[in-house]
Amino acid sequence: MDQSKVWYIAAVLFLVAAVASFIGGQSVFGGAFIAIGAMCVALGYIEARKGGRT
Questions:
Q1: Number of structural domains in the chain
Q2: What is the DSSP string of the chain?
Q3: Which pTM does this prediction carry?
Q4: What whole-number distance in Å separates Cα of residue 54 and Cα of residue 34?
Q5: Whole domain around residue 8: which residue ranges?
Q6: From first to last of its 54 residues, what are the pLDDT tens digits of the chain?
C-alpha cells in the first residue's frame, strides 16, 4: 500500500471520529478532528503527486 492511501485512510478515520464527537455533543473535538482529517487528505494528495500519480 502506498503512502497516499495511508493518509486517505487516516483522514476517513478522523472524519468518522468527528461525526461521533458531534453526535456526542463534543463539537470542539469534532472541529479539531475535521481539521486533522482535512490535513490528512492534503498530505495524501501531495504524496500521490510526488509519486507521479494524480
A1: 1
A2: --HHHHHHHHHHHHHHHHHHHHHTT-HHHHHHHHHHHHHHHHHHHHHHHHTT--
A3: 0.74
A4: 23
A5: 3-50
A6: 678 899 999 999 999 999 999 899 988 888 899 999 999 999 999 988 887 654
